[in-house]
Amino acid sequence: xxxxxxxxxxxxxxxxxxxxxxxxxxxxxxxxxxxxxxxxxxxxxxxxxxxxxxxxxxxxxxxxxxxxxxxxxxxxxxxxxxxxxxxxxxxxxxx
Length: 95
Known about the structure:
The chain is α+β, with helices and mostly antiparallel strands. It has two helices and four strands, in the order ββββαα. A four-stranded antiparallel beta sheet has the order 3-2-1-4. Strand 1 (about 10-15) and strand 2 (about 20-25) form a beta hairpin. It is globular, with a radius of gyration of 16 Å.
């Protein structure tokens, strides 16, 4: 499998009160990756003001040229676990 080089980075975190995944944008925190501020270098992070009382587990996440997350862990952070409760119920009913 070929290694995908990041073309930009976004800042992701989780809302302190709900755990919802958020992305930093020019207008604050948003829920969609599409609206996230794309940084061309990690050094640009030094200029961001992130409130620790609103968002926790803040990380810099690599994205490709289409603006999609490269790391599977970060994709799971957004989409949730790969085994959903409904999937487990369907499996139990089929057994």
